[in-house]
Amino acid sequence: NAGVTQTPKFRILKIGQSMTLQCAQDMNHNYMYWYRQDPGMGLKLIYYSVGAGITDKGEVPNGYNVSRSTTEDFPLRLELAAPSQTSVYFCASGTGGAGELFFGEGSRLTVL
Amino acid sequence: QQQVKQSPQSLIVQKGGISIINCAYENTAFDYFPWYQQFPGKGPALLIAIRPDVSEKKEGRFTISFNKSAKQFSLHIMDSQPGDSATYFCAARPGSARQLTFGSGTQLTVLP
Fold it and tell me: What letter would DSSP give residue A84?
C-alpha cells in the first residue's frame, strides 16, 4: 500500500539548474497538490490539479510548472533554480471536497 | 482573508499535561477545519477535523473546540505523551474551494 510516493527525497541544485520532482499516487485520487514547507511558514500551495489534463495555480506558483497527463502522476518542474526555492516539497492527493489529504514523505531541495 | 493564524509557534508541555494550540480565521466562508500532525521526516497526516455546525469534537485524547462567533478553533491534547511530540497544523477550507489553507504550524515537545 504505497499511497503517495515522492522522488527524490534529497537533492542539491546549483543556481540556474532545472529539475523535476516526481509524485505518484496509487489511490485513484482525482485531486493532487504540491506544497512547499518553510520553517515557521506552514504549508504553501504551489499548484494543484483536479484531474488529468487540469492544473491550476496555488498561492506561490512562480518559478514552478506542473503537468498532469495521468491520474497517478503529478510532476513538479523547477526551471532556473534560485536559492529562494530551497525548501521541503510535499505532494498530496485526495478525493476533493472535505476529504482527507494524503501526503508523501517530502523532497528536500537545496539550491546553492 | 484567506489566512489562518496559528499560535503558539512552539510549545513545551510536561508529560500528562494539556497541550492547547489555537487558530483564528477571517473568512466566514470557511466550512471545514482539519488538524494535521507531522512527525520529523514525514508528511503531515490528518488527525481530526470539525465542521462549524458543532462546537466540539473529541477523538480519544484529542479535542477540537470551535467558536464560530469568535472565528477561532483550537486543538486540545489531554494527558500529553512524549509520542505526541510533533508539528501540528490547523487548516481551513471554504465550501467552494478545492484546496486547504494551512496555519503556520506549532512545534509541540512533550517532556518525559
Answer: G
Contact A31 B98 (CB under 8 A): yes
* pLDDT of B80 strictly over 60: yes
Counting as low any pLDDT under 50, the low residues of chain A are none
Answer yes or no: do A33 and B102 touch at CB < 8 A. no
Which residues in chain A are closer than 8 Å to B6, comparing Cβ atoms? 42
Please give the full DSSP string across B26-95, using - where no structure is assigned: --TTEEEEEEEEE-TTS--EEEEEE-TT-SEEEETTEEEEEETTTTEEEEEESS--GGG-EEEEEEEEET
- The whole-number average pLDDT for the span B8-36 is 95
Q: Cβ contacts (< 8 Å) between A90 and chain B: which residues?
A: 43-44
Which of B51-55, B71-75, B103-107 is least confident? Answer: B51-55
Best probe of the B interface among A101, A102, A107, by most B CBs < 10 A, is A101
